Amino acid sequence: MSAKRILLIANPASGRRRGEQRLAVARTQLEALGHAVTAALTESAGHATRLAKSNAPDFEIVAALGGDGTVNEVA
């Protein structure tokens, strides 16, 4: 598998407010596989959509970590 540029977008309030912790775990695991990972935390409703749209051209993968709302915003 070749290394990818990955943007992880996470909602810090998701998962009983463990979104930031889960983001750190995912980032560590992906970096251990050789991927270049950038992490971003959402700040408000609609922020995940803005992050995904404005940054998508710079990444091969844009992924959402969080609840249904975050995933729907990024999709």
UniProtKB/TrEMBL annotation:
Any Pfam family hit: DAGK_cat
Gene3D superfamilies cross-referenced by the UniProt entry: Probable inorganic polyphosphate/atp-NAD kinase, domain 1 (3.40.50.10330)
SUPFAM superfamilies: NAD kinase/diacylglycerol kinase-like (SSF111331)
InterPro entries: ATP-NAD_kinase_N, Diacylglycerol_kinase_cat_dom, NAD/diacylglycerol_kinase_sf
Domain annotation DAGKc: ranges: 1-75
GO molecular function, one term: kinase activity
Name of the protein: DAGKc domain-containing protein
Naturally occurring in which organism (per UniProt): marine metagenome
